[in-house]
């Protein structure tokens, strides 16, 4: 019988993290804040044929990959399942069928080993990625979160608590990257392809900034920017002009990224918080990384910028957030279900 009522929390536990919310089946193992292995099997190439993630293909790919990815992660860490002190898994947000593959596997593993099951909110995983690059990192810090579903600036006060300082009022930044890529005829995934196209372009087209001008406190909007890019491309095509894809990509990227960077630094200075972190797929963007690094340096702020592989979906961040929850004894019941949506707070 599964019974963890007498479980003793360890200071440096071995945690196995599992992630299957979208198109990556991922498993990682950490000991305390030390990453021992980090494995991913992706169905992105298969999804690219359809121009985006097809949920049923994602679920099927997870069922085929989950056993193998866990085996690889254990092997790379030089461990067997018996060494695992807790199992952390993404329970939401994401594609329901995809989440259920990872969650069911994690439940089975935790049950068989009689160790705690830790249910991780995917977005909190993205926020915890910074601990992987700097294991000594301690809150408080200001965090820029930019993914496919969320865009916000947060004040992280402790390992488990944060305040939202500013957020998007409509689309997420990643969504805008993906839509603009599509209108430019660039393949899925959109973000990295916009980045590639922008390298050869000039930011010489005036698109509306993602910063909402009329709001009392800073807020972002990506739907106006996205529409402006779509209209620009359609108008150019109607006039028989060649759409300058590289310039559109560079101009969009600047309008999307600059306000995020500027306001992250502004909040850190205003609140007297000396450290800035970041998380989410859009933080993989080279222009954003360069701007954030420059602005933090200029402002004398310490920046903990997760490596690109920890920004896009991975299981190391799920294990890292799992540790935060583990140390506060925040374990999930076996009855926990997957959730397609979870509010940021
Ligand atoms: O965090 P993530 O992997 O998944 C979610 O949790 O949403 O973020 C995915 C988003 C996609 O919209 C993708 O286009 C964007 O992150 N992304 C990028 C880059 N790499 C991924 N956006 C801009 N530049 C990139 N290099
Ligand atoms: Zn993600």
Briefly, what is this?
The protein is an alpha/beta fold and 345 residues long. It contains eleven helices and ten strands.
What number is the mean pLDDT? 96
Q: What is the string of SSEs from the N terminus onward?
A: EEEHHEHEHEEEHHHHEHEHH
**Rg, please?**
20 Å
Summarize the main sheet: 5 strands, mixed
What kind of oligomer do you see? single chain
**Overall 3D form:** globular
Overall tally of structural domains: 2
Ligand species: 5'-O-[(R)-(carboxyoxy)(hydroxy)phosphoryl]adenosine, zinc ion
CATH H-level superfamily of the largest domain:
ATPase, nucleotide binding domain
Q: What is the total tally of β strands?
A: 10
- Which fold does the CATH topology of the largest domain refer to? Nucleotidyltransferase, domain 5
User: How many DSSP H or I helices?
Assistant: 11
Strand content: 15-25%
Name of the CATH architecture of the largest domain: 2-Layer Sandwich
Query: Could you estimate the helical fraction of the residues in percent?
Result: 40-55%
Broad structural category? alpha/beta
**In angstroms, what separates the terminal alpha carbons?**
34 Å
Please state how the strands of the largest beta sheet are arranged side by side. Answer: 3-2-1-4-5
């Amino acid at each position: 019988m599964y019974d963890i009522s007498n479980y003793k929390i360890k200071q440096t536990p071995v945690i196995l993290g599992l992630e299957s919310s979208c198109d990556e089946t991922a498993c990682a193992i950490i000991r305390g804040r030390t990453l021992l292995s980090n494995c991913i099997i992706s169905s992105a190439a298969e999804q690219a044929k359809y121009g985006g993630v097809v949920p049923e293909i994602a679920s099927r790919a997870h069922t085929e990959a989950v056993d193998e990815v866990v085996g690889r992660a254990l092997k790379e860490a030089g461990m067997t399942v018996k060494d695992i002190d807790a199992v952390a898994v993404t329970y939401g947000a994401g594609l329901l069928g995809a989440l259920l593959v990872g969650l069911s596997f994690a439940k089975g593993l935790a049950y068989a080993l009689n160790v705690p099951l830790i249910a991780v909110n995917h977005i909190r995983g993205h926020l915890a990625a910074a601990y992987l690059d700097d294991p000594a990192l301690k809150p408080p810090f200001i965090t820029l979160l930019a993914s496919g579903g969320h865009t916000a600036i947060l004040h992280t006060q402790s390992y488990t608590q944060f305040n939202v300082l500013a957020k998007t009022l409509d689309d997420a930044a990643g969504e805008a990257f993906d839509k603009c890529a599509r209108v430019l005829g660039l393949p899925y995934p959109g973000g990295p392809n916009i980045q590639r196209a922008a390298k050869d372009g000039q930011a010489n087209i005036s698109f509306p900034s993602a910063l909402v001008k009329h709001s009392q406190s800073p807020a972002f909007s990506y739907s106006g920017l996205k529409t402006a890019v779509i209209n620009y491309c359609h108008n150019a095509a109607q006039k028989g002009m060649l759409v300058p894809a590289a310039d559109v990509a560079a101009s969009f990227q600047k309008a999307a990224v600059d306000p995020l960077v500027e306001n992250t630094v502004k909040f850190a200075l205003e609140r007297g918080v000396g450290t800035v972190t970041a998380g989410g797929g859009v933080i993989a963007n080279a222009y954003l990384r360069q701007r954030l690094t420059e602005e933090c340096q200029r402002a004398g702020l310490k920046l903990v910028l997760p490596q690109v592989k920890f920004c896009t979906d991975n299981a190391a961040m799920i294990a890292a957030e799992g540790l935060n929850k583990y140390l506060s004894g925040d374990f999930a019941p076996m009855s926990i279900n997957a959730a397609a949506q979870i509010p940021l707070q």
